[in-house]
Design a protein that fits this description.
By secondary structure, this protein is α+β, with helices and mostly antiparallel strands. The protein has six helices and seven strands; from the N terminus they run βααααβββαβαββ. The chain has helices at residues 15-25, 27-33, 39-42, 45-54, 96-112, 126-134, and strands at 5-9, 56-62, 65-74, 79-87, 116-122, 138-146, 149-157. It has a seven-stranded mixed beta sheet with strand order 1-2-3-4-5-7-6, with helices on both faces. Strand 6 (138-146) and strand 7 form a beta hairpin. The protein is globular, with a radius of gyration of 15 Å.
Length: 164
């Protein structure tokens, strides 16, 4: 008998699991950048708990285990910044990242009046870029972070959002 993954609002009780998953998921990014001091790897539990109170944080659960998470905020202009989309490595390539993204989009539009969504990813993240483009995001800017390393900023209007 298998369990299905559910997506729900994160609570402070989830903070430690989210932080451990974030640490696991950002190791490849740190290795690629040659920098293990990137923000996702240095965030403290207290900082994450504050973020849980102040922003929209969703988790994907398999039973009681947190296997994915995503965060979002909306600024005064209605731009939703979506960040830290993470999925446990054993759960990747099964559509969970897309489900998390669609869920946070709906939450940010419905509860926080988002008019557009914005996210950033590494230029080399082919799978991430493919997912974001499939969900309607278009590149709007690129930034060189270091030699051979760049980030892409993608956006989409709420009217173009894909529903689950």
């Amino acid at each position: 008998m298998g369990m299905s993954v559910t997506i729900d609002t994160a609570t402070e009780a989830d903070a430690e699991q989210i932080l451990k998953l974030q640490y696991l998921c950002y190791q490849p990014e740190a290795e690629l950048q040659g920098d293990y001091t990137i923000a996702p790897l240095t965030q403290t539990l207290a900082e994450l708990e504050a973020e849980l109170r102040e922003t929209c944080v969703l988790v994907a659960r398999l039973g009681s285990e947190v296997v994915g998470s995503v965060r979002g905020t909306v600024d005064a202009d209605g731009t939703a910044a979506i960040s830290r989309i993470i999925v446990h490595p054993r759960m990747q390539r099964h559509g969970l990242g897309g489900r998390l993204l669609v869920a946070v989009e709906a939450r940010l539009a419905g509860e926080r009046a988002a008019a557009r969504y914005r996210l950033r990813t590494g230029r080399r993240g082919v799978e991430n870029l493919r997912l974001y483009r499939r969900l309607g995001y278009v590149p709007v800017a690129t930034e060189e972070v270091a030699r051979q390393l760049g980030r892409v900023t993608l956006e989409k209007e709420v009217a173009l959002a894909v529903t689950a």
